[in-house]
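step 3/5: co-fold with flavin-adenine dinucleotide
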Amino acid sequence: MQDTTQVSEFKGIMVYLEHSAGQLESVSLEILGKARELAERLATDVTGVILGYDIREFGEEAAQFGADRVLVADSPSLAQYTTEAFCNVLAEVVRDRKPEIFLLGATHDGRDLAGRLAVRLNTGLTAHAVQVDIEPETNLLVCGVPGFGGSIVARCKCPRSRPQMATVRPGIFPVPERRPQRKGAIETVQVNTGQVRTKVVERSVKAGVDIARAEIVVIAGRGAVTYFDSVRKFADSIGSAIGVTRPLADRELMPRDYQVGSTGIAVTPKLAIVLGASGAAHFVSGIRGAKTVISVNKDPDADINADADYFVVEDIGRLLPALLSKLEGK
Amino acid sequence: MRTIVCMKVVPKTEDVRFDQQTRTLDRSGAENEINQPDKSALEMALQLKEGHGGDVVLLSMGPSFFEPYLRLGIAMGADNAILLSDRAFAGADTYPTSYTIATAIRKIGNFDLVLCGEESSDASTGQVPPGIAEWLDIPQVTYLSQLNIEGSMARAKRTVKGGYEIVEAPLPLLASVELGCNSPRFPDFRRKRWAEKEFKITVWTAADMGVNPDKIGSKGSHTTVDELVELPRPSRRMQRITGSPEEEAVLIVQKIKEAFGS
Ligand SMILES: Cc1cc2nc3c(=O)[nH]c(=O)nc-3n(C[C@H](O)[C@H](O)[C@H](O)COP(=O)(O)OP(=O)(O)OC[C@H]3O[C@@H](n4cnc5c(N)ncnc54)[C@H](O)[C@@H]3O)c2cc1C
Ligand SMILES: Cc1cc2nc3c(=O)[nH]c(=O)nc-3n(C[C@H](O)[C@H](O)[C@H](O)COP(=O)(O)OP(=O)(O)OC[C@H]3O[C@@H](n4cnc5c(N)ncnc54)[C@H](O)[C@@H]3O)c2cc1C
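step 4/5: write tokens
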């Protein structure tokens, strides 16, 4: 096993670049932006690493978003994400390049991969960070890890082993500006996938849903399930994105990507309209970033009222028809 | 078929208070519960047992106050419960946690499936399950919502960004199970009395397991927590809108317009 405690041998910042449906993930770009900032602080450089098949054009794109160098592992055996193949290839890359910091997006695949890789590399991993900084005195990476539904943040460091690994929560940091004239070195990485025991036999993925950046979101909770069709109509009529609480995603009323909360998306709209949600901590952390919150709940004592700018104590079954006819009236 | 279910006991989120003075968590007033996704994992294990036979073993690392919750799992239908309890395990980050649990799983032996929850409701890293799989050198499927076993093969539905995938993997396999993918059963009343009064929980210490003392607890941890910070609650106006539904609708539409500055 490599000695990961020889900290001075590890240099630079590495960013895992995730992609799906022919696009770099927004979270990977967000991390590139953050990594640039950290690199300035540490006077070092940013290396992107991307795995997949037929992905060469992503190298240039990542450079335009801030990578000084992009390592490309391009192989048919990486056409689909599998934990073992990606972990095996990345472990070799990290052992070879020895970055001091290694950041990944806290997506399903990113967390699946990072959790295994950190043990393989014998190093520490902080989880879905919402704050990513360098500690001035030590030059160590310090990350804020939300816990207890998102209200409490633990400031975590990885002082004695390298790389300092972290997954970063999507939607927290801005996507940096793309600079078409910016160039980076593109390098090809040897691909040795090793033993892969899982096989993806079917994959059903729709691209393009990203409610994290919507300007307005209507969020349906369990109290709105019966009226879900009207909720959709309402959202459409005001040009709003739609979100749901966890129980609705559990019941597959909407895909998980529309779920707001600590195990879903943190939305940052100008306005969130919450219909029939009780206001559990794991949910409310997802609407912290909303500028204005309107809530409708028939329970005058619902917790959500304290997290709303305006709340209406009303049965959704009575209010929605009135809202829809009011909106149709114009 | 043997399924090992990893179970964590957590304080109910809404009961945890943050002490601004000491910057520590006050869990004294908090009721505890089985981490909810772990209950879904147990339910899945029990359903598989109904179809395939075998046994279900609960495994937990934590202090002795976890015991009543293991008994609850036994009352739901698990066959055996092992608590890994030792002062030396305290202060573990996910690296030693997954190492300690994986070592216990090896000691239990003869397993086909390890089921975890997708993440805990307190620290919620979700890193323990893939960590265990790596220590055991077995395949993993995280964020799983359905699982079928045929012979020595598993077929799983896994949530990914934008949708799902169907994954096939040979046993033994580790899976982390999504909260809400099933409705965990209530404990059987008669079994509950037996579980509370007569069932004997197995307790293993570090010495019982032969773990490497440098790899457990705070000593084995790579990460350190400098401090806890409570995020300030966004200040909300908390203004109630009242009237008939029609009047409320008018006011809501007005607020929508205001939010967009028109
Ligand atoms: C580890 C973990 C992670 C979690 N992650 C998330 C997450 O990311 N997102 C999330 O949302 N939850 C999450 N949860 C679940 C969370 O704790 C709550 O259980 C969930 O948010 C409750 O959803 P809800 O408010 O829609 O339903 P409920 O709590 O059942 O509330 C329904 C509300 O609707 C009101 N209502 C009912 N009927 C009507 C009506 N006709 N008109 C008006 N009001 C009505 C009721 O008064 C009630 O307040 C998580 C839990 C755990 C343990
Ligand atoms: C606010 C906060 C933030 C933290 N951040 C980090 C961090 O960034 N990195 C880090 O390495 N550590 C972190 N920790 C430490 C972490 O809480 C411990 O390592 C803990 O033992 C396991 O992590 P978890 O609760 O996140 O488990 P998760 O990985 O979220 O748990 C997933 C599943 O693993 C199983 N499992 C987990 N723990 C046990 C157990 N004790 N017994 C049986 N099964 C179990 C359960 O099935 C559970 O559903 C943090 C702690 C706090 C309080």
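step 5/5: annotate
Chain A touches chain B through 99 residues (CB under 8 Å).
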